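Just wondering, does anyone understand what follows?

——
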Amino acid sequence: MTASKRKSVPMVGTSLGGGVGGAGCSSLAPDPESAAEKAIAFLETLRIPEGPKAGQKLRLADFQKRFVRGALAPENMVAVLSIGRGNSKTATSSAIALGSVMGIWDKQPKREVLFAARNRDQAKIAFNFLVGFIESLPKRERERFVIRRGSRLEVEYTGNGGGLARCIAADGRSILGGAPTLAILDERAAWEKEKGDALENAILSGLGKRNGKALIISTSAPDDANTFSRWLDEPPPGTYVQEHRPPFGLPADDAESLLVANPGAAEGIGASLEWLQAQARRAIARGGSALSSFRNLNRNERVSAEDRSVLITVDEWLAAEVSPEELPERKGPCILGVDLGGSRSMSAAAFYWPETGRLEALGTFPSTPSLADRGASDGVGRRYVEMAERKELFTLGDNTVPPGPWLAEVVKLVEGASIACIVGDRFRHAEFVEAMAKANLRVPFIWRGFGWKDGAEDIERFRRALFDGQVKTLPSLLLRSAFSEAVTLVDPAGNHKLAKARSLGRIDAAAATVLAVAEGARRLARPVQSGRAVLWA
């Protein structure tokens, strides 16, 4: 599997291999005098410091060479690498740091290299790799290093103009005034939001003083809003991006996609494909957080590894998605679940046919601001635009979605279906009544609360219907996105109520789906009344 190539300005699309190449990956013969080729030649003189192949010469795989070339291309200041755990991203970056501090391709005096991480222990991992590589150098070179392991983790190089490598944690104030020639931001997706962004901004602001470069490396973040995800999805000019992420929705033990996320497995780097598949099957059997964690860390997917309070996990929802040929028909009464949005939020509707289990959902935003601008402000990139292209989302109204015309437009999409009732939030009852009158809808309205009482029952009925295979829908980016943002708050008695995972999350489609499916489950559970006449004694 190889990564596709793209320039250092943002472009849409990745290859099947999940990688996105950048400048410096040319089909022409590489220049042996370039910084990248000098770095590759130097790295392959080092010896592996630990693991089963400890003591052997370091041999870079193709994906590692691509990253080195992209990172050290003159036009790039930042290089971003997203790859599965155990594919030597930290070790490779540490080897690059060693070459940088020794001035192999950078002759500036007093070079400065930073190892930045969420905390000191994380930064120490890269530091230990650096020290291990130093120990593989000839004795004459080793004597030029001073290694400090006390309160400060530092490596000082006294030859070739001198250099210093040091570790820092996520506190931007600790490096104000620094001028690094190279910075390694390790496991960037795991950094705390505010402190991590402050540290990153402080580092990047100092790089320009000495034409420095930054290597931002990590496994995938759990969501699109993470700063590391933004680097991958919206890279600014001067950024090289290499992402090894398989397509969404594949089985956890799929061999081809495992190799996409773990290209080192085919090169003898890290875990073997057999081991990865065995771990995948174990995670599938255990389910829950074990499976979510495997997808995030080993398959490099954007899946939250924390599922103690999620409404449902990714794999639980994927079980409800079917192909168009397998989708049940619209048969029997239809339950319409509605979540009316506020002045600027999404309004969502979910249609559920309890007799067949068919589910359809769509969302609506006001036209101002545009879907692209709204996606940028919500931290989800082009997701809303893609939903609109898939006919799962549309716009109506200027600054707000008018409830009456919206409800009428929604019902048109299932024209001919027998709508048995509309289910919605009891606190919006007056708005629902007005909207139904304007849409000329004369069906019962069932109001439900989103608090502990009604919410706990609806969530439990929805989960039970989903797990029993009574919910079937086409693959929907709208619903995937909504359920990925939905969590539940749990009270001391174990009751659940729906909530957002983040303040900018959009869970309206998930809320509408829970309401519709729960009401459908209640109707199916009611005993069928007998038509037998009453007999009097």
Observations:
- DSSP finds 18 helices and 16 strands in the chain.
